[in-house]
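== Sequence entry ==
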Amino acid sequence: MLKLSAIIPTFNEEKNIEAAIQSVLFIDEIIIIDSYSTDKTIDIAKKYNVRIIQRTFDNFSNQKNYAIENAKHEWIVLLDADERIGEKLKVEIQNIIKNGPEASAYWVYRRNYLLGREIKYSGWQNDKVIRLIERDVCKYNGKLVHEEIALPKKTAFLKHKLDHYTYKDFDSFINKKNKVAQLQAEMLAAKNKKATIGKLLIKPTYRFINHYFLRRGFLDGFPGFFISSFYFYTIFTRYIKLWLINKGLK
């Protein structure tokens, strides 16, 4: 039977890493690709039979591709530290590997949680990610952020959902959004894009309206307002950072 490797990227994930590892203990090899965490992430991970690879972070694509290249087994489960594989999804993955995969990459829908509540609207209704891949066929496309697998021709969908817990604490949430905004600004600057007053005012406002009203974030209560507000914040911050890069002030 084919064997599996699991890859979990980490940076200061002491609040998440143990539960993430526990959800993939059925997998033959577990790799922690760590960006030199300064908290207890590595100490916690060492309690389990895992491979720990530390690499200086440059971007999300390179980090994950490096781990993929170092995986021992042909088939890989990709898992973020804030994601969990439940029993039904576990059995489904095991059956695919046992019976022989029919695709080279598998999509999975995510069940998202924020501030203790499942998010059913706010633009997250159909959130899906690639999480089961054939190592020698699938690689990330080099984007600095919101990295994507360069997909093979043959893909399929898993039937069961992946649980995604998006919030550890407020400071971590802010830090993550700031990192995303910085990388997005760098991508735009590389394409010679310019920050304008129009983009600073219109784009963030539209995203708030889109997620809170058009995508019915208001039905998610305060978490829906929280999500919509942080889309506004991330985009506004992105263009502030782009303006600083344009002016050579980064």
User: Anything to note?
Assistant: The beta strands are 4-10, 29-34, 51-54, 75-78, 83-84, 105-114, 117-118, 128-134, 155-157, 162-165.
